[in-house]
Amino acid sequence: MSDHIIERVKTGIPGLDELIEGGFPKGDTILVAGKAGTGKSILATQFIYKGATEYDEPGVFVTLEEPPHLIKRNMIRFGMDLEKLEKEKKISIVDLSPSKEVTPVTIGEYPSFDLSGLEAIILNHVKKLKAKRVVLDTLSIMAYKFKSRDILREEFFKLTANITRAGCTLLLTSEIPAHHQGLGVFDIEAFLASGVIVLYNEKISDTSRSRSIEVLKLRGSKHSSRIHSMRITEEGIRVWPGEISPGV
Amino acid sequence: MADKKKRKGSKKEDDPEKIEVVFFKSDSCAFCPRAEEVIRETIEDFGSDVFTLKIVNVSENPEAAEEFGIFALPTVMIGGVSVTGIPEPDLLMKMVLGAKVLTKKKDGSK
Hints:
The complex is a heterodimer. Helices cover 30% and strands 29% of the residues of chain A. Chain A is of the alpha/beta class. Chain A has a single domain, classed as P-loop containing nucleotide triphosphate hydrolases (Rossmann fold), CATH 3.40.50. In chain A, the strands form 2 sheets. In chain A, strands 5-4-7-8-3-9-10-11-12 form a 9-stranded mixed beta sheet, with helices on both faces. In chain A, a hairpin with a 5-residue loop joins β9 (195-203) and β10. The radius of gyration of chain A is 18 Å and the shape is globular. By secondary structure, chain B is an alpha+beta fold. Chain B has a single domain, classed as Glutaredoxin (3-Layer(aba) Sandwich). Chain B is 48% helix and 20% strand. Chain B has 4 helices and 4 strands. In chain B, strands 2-1-3-4 form a 4-stranded mixed beta sheet. At the A-B interface, β6 and α5 of A face α3 and β4 of B. β6 of chain A pairs parallel with β4 of chain B.
């Protein structure tokens, strides 16, 4: 039977591991999808932070959207001192945000490119840190950066495969546009990942909203099929596995 | 960061008239060899005294790609603007000419 036991990577997010048999399957790609303001980046950062501080698993956080100084400022509120972990070489924050001053302005794009540059950048940090966890926050920004969606879709498969082949568990975030039915702008997000987690922040009355989390799929795991209550506390995201959300 | 040093070095060599064309490629990029050919053919028409061509192999120097936020390859960068994919010669020409105008303006304002 031991051959069938899947090694797990604990997220360290209170309550979440209980919903997913103890953690994400090691070496898998997990998608965290949700509309704006649902807590995707907090969850992703907690995954990296807990890995480095509690499980001795260095992590690489690739930011395609928010500049690192803002991520550090926002996360310190939840007790996550990313600057310190960076100095201790337990994590790397890779700045590929649009705010970089030296990034040239793209004036043309021909449908004959690949993402081998992004792959080389990420794998360089993985190698240097001997990283076990990688976060890409957020995949959706690529839709605004590049026009050639077909190429991107194909390249995402290559990219995720090559990162997980390097021994890392990969977490991708995807922003679901308002009034959108799918899991992101590319409509292939669910296929990219062997696990999908959806975050909600739904209006339940004129004056209040309710946060919740759903494990939509997780291959190789018996996961909860219900939508559970979630809150953003002073220590980041906390899930209540025994509490079913009233909001969705 | 060998490329970085080269960049700094080229400024010291001091040829403000020369336009720097930076070409980012990788070992695994299937479109890169053709893109490099197009770039070489196009800028050669201007004569080698007009430009310097810097080739950055991201497989060997991922830091350079990270520094400039270049993650799709091939990408060619000329004077603060870039093109991704195999470029059309016309667009490259326009980029070179645009960079030339900028260089002249800078010289004039000194």
